[in-house]
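User: Can you help me understand a structure? I only have the sequence.
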Amino acid sequence: MKNSDNIKAMVKEKYSEIALQSKDINQSSCCGSSACSTEVYNIMSDDYDGLKGYHSEADLGLGCGLPTAFAGIQSGQTVVDLGCGAGNDCFIARNETGATGRVIGIDFTPAMIEKARTNAQTLGYENVEFILGDIEQMPLNEGTADVVVSNCVLNLVPNKQNVFNEIFRILKPGGHFSISDVVLEKPLPEAVKNVAELYAGCVAGAILQDEYLDIIRKAGFTDVQIQQSKPIHIPLDILNQYLSAADAATYQEQSPGIKSITVYAKKPEPCCCGTGCNA
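Assistant: Let's start by predicting it. Here is the structure, written out as C-alpha cells:
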C-alpha cells in the first residue's frame, strides 16, 4: 500500500520525464506512460485543434476532456488551471479572458512550469503566469479565481477532498469550476490499482463517480452537474503487461466502467450579505 507522499513522488517523477518527451511519444502512450496502448490514448483524448488560443507546443497529449470548452469563461475574469502542465488549457483560457483577464497555472513539477513559462514568453502573454505548487495547498489567496479548470489531474491526487476544499477557498463567491477527470462505476481490481505506470496513466488513481461527486458537495459546492461523459476502455494488450492472462480476461469480462467526465459546480454566494437569511 502506497501512502500519499509516495504516490506524489512517483507522479512527480513520471511527469518530470513526460515534460521532456515529445508530443508524439505521449500520443502513443497512456497519459505519457511508457508502456501503454495507442488505443487508450485515442479513446481518452479530445481534439483541441478547433479551440481558439490553442498552442501546439503546449499540448503534451495528456488530457481526458476539454474543460475550457465547458467553463463559460468571460472577458476580464481570473482563471486558475490546476495541474497546468505545459500551459495548454491556460492559453485557451487566455483567449477567453482577453488581455484584461488573468490566467494562473499551478503545477508541482518544475520541468512542467519551466516549459509553460517558455511557451508563455514565446506567445507574449504577460497576463498568464505559472506557479510551482501543490494543488492540495495552493499558493493563492482566498477568493482569487472566477473560474477554475483542470484536465485529467485530480485522479492523480491522493487526497481529493483537500483539493476540492482548496478550490472552494480560492474561488470567489458565485465562481465555478469545470474539471475533466477519470472516474469509475465500480472499483478497480487491486492488481491494476497498485501499478505505478497506471497511476501516472490517469486510470488507477480514479475513484467511484458517486464518491467523486460527494467529495465536491462536501466541500460546499452547489449546482453539481456532469457536462460531458465518455467511456474509456483498457484494451487487452495493456492489461497483459500488468496482469496474468486469467486476471486480464476476468477484468475484461467484469469491466468496472471507466469514464472520463467533465463536471461543473458553483461556489454559492453569501445569503443576505453573509448575515443569514433569517437575520
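Now, to help you interpret it: Confidence is low (pLDDT under 50) at residues 22-30. Residues 272 and 279 are 8 Å apart (CA to CA). Let me know which part you'd like to focus on.
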